[in-house]
Every structure is written in structure tokens, then in C-alpha cells.
Write a structure and sequence with these properties.
With 219 residues, the protein is α/β, with parallel strands linked by helices. It folds into two domains: 129 residues, Response regulator (Rossmann fold); 73 residues, Orthogonal Bundle (Arc Repressor Mutant, subunit A). 51% of the residues lie in helices and 12% in strands. Helix 6 packs parallel to helix 10. It is globular, with a radius of gyration of 17 Å.
Length: 219
């Protein structure tokens, strides 16, 4: 999590020069500090290991090393750096692979500038952002067939009723403010519930929690 008084430090990874420059300029306009750029996953891993940014904005389809493999390696070389995937693909399998590799958020390149900047800020704050339309497709794909598992079977997770409510909204792509509004609780309380959920499910971020929960029939 970053200091609120310090600018969020970002590295942009994309093999297309014009797209990379566009993302860099967009983030700069939104008050974010771009401290480096890389054109492929291999260069990204080296750069992030040296610079340790708060957030890496990562494309997936790149030469030499894919964004998914780079995301997986970044978890080892710079565990405090969060990865926000920004790509053209909404393919269900690609989304699942990126999330399981450790991505903290997943947005499409047709997202607005405000959405991309919000995604970076969410990742830097230890939250995660995924487009609701991607979340719904992904979670439907992962949902067990009816009758194959009962709710929570085999998970070993003992969520409270309120934690289960928070998890269901999280899985629908809601951010902390949206969850707080829906449940009439404070954003700080939502954050505390999510921290407890992550610990109980033994996962690293809220998207992984949603994927895990759907696969296990919790939601």
C-alpha cells in the first residue's frame, strides 16, 4: 500500500509503442508517476526487479515472454508491486490465467481514462478492479455445475454471514465503496471484512477470492 502523500509509481508494459505512450500520457495526466516502460515481459521483469514500482500496467500478448508469465515472475522478484492487466482480450481462459498468475485487476483497452486510472489507484491501495462484464463472464464460466457441490463444500473456509455477503458483491465486480453502499456499512468495515476473507481463503487478492469462492460453490 502506498503513502497517500507520495505519487503512485507505475511501469507500463506493452509491445506497441503508440499504445504504451498513450497509456503513459493518460496516467501522467491523472497525476500518476510513470517511472519506466517495457516492450515485452522479459524486459518488464528486469525493470520491475530494479525499480519496484507500486503498480505494473501489463499487456498480455507480447513477444519473448507473455504478460501472464511475466506477472507470475513479478510475484517473486517484486512481491509488493501490483499488476493491473490492460489488454484487448476478454477471453475467459486468458482472464482466469492472468488472475491465477497474480494479477490484481483486469481491464480492457477500450476502458475510459478514468477507469484505467482508477484501476491503478485501486491496485496501489491493495484492492483490485475487474470490469463487471468480465467478472460476470468469468465467474459464470467457473461456477460448478448445479448439484456438483454444496455451498462452501470442501473449502475449509468458515465465513460469517456478512463476509459471505461481501464476497458475493466482490464477485460481482463491486468496489469497496459500492459494497459499503449496498450493505449500509463503512468502506473501512468493508476493507476489514475483505482482509478477513483473504486470510480465510488463503488467497492474495479479492479477484482470486472471487474465483476461488465460485469454484468451491461458496457463492
Amino acid at each position: 500500500m502506498t503513502d497517500e502523500n507520495e505519487p503512485i509509481r507505475v511501469i507500463v508494459v506493452d509491445d506497441h509503442d503508440l499504445l504504451r505512450k498513450g497509456v503513459r500520457d493518460l496516467l501522467t495526466e491523472h497525476g500518476l508517476q510513470v517511472v519506466g516502460e517495457a516492450a515485452d515481459g522479459d524486459d518488464a521483469v528486469r525493470l520491475v526487479a530494479h525499480a519496484a514500482p507500486d503498480v505494473v500496467v501489463m499487456d498480455l500478448n507480447m513477444p519473448r515472454m507473455s504478460g501472464i508469465e511475466a506477472t507470475r515472475r513479478l510475484a517473486r522478484v517484486s512481491p509488493t508491486s501490483r499488476v493491473l492487466v490492460l489488454t484487448v482480450s476478454a477471453d475467459d481462459e486468458t482472464v482466469a490465467d492472468a488472475i491465477e498468475a497474480g494479477a490484481s485487476g483486469y481491464l480492457l483497452k477500450d476502458a475510459s481514462g478514468d477507469e484505467i486510472a482508477s484501476g491503478v489507484r485501486a491496485a496501489a491501495a491493495g484492492e483490485a478492479l475487474i470490469s463487471p462484464r468480465i467478472a460476470s463472464r468469468l465467474l459464470e464460466r467457473l461456477r460448478p455445475e448445479e448439484g456438483s457441490q454444496g455451498p462452501g463444500s470442501g473449502t475449509g473456509a468458515e465465513l460469517t454471514d456478512r463476509e459471505a455477503e461481501v464476497l458475493r458483491l466482490l464477485a460481482a465486480g463491486r468496489d469497496n465503496a459500492g459494497i459499503a453502499q449496498e450493505l449500509y456499512i463503512s468502506p473501512r468495515t468493508v476493507k476489514n471484512h475483505i482482509s478477513s476473507i483473504l486470510a480465510k481463503l488463503h488467497v492474495d487478492n479479492r479477484i482470486q477470492a472471487a474465483v476461488y469462492a465460485v469454484r468451491k460453490g461458496i457463492v
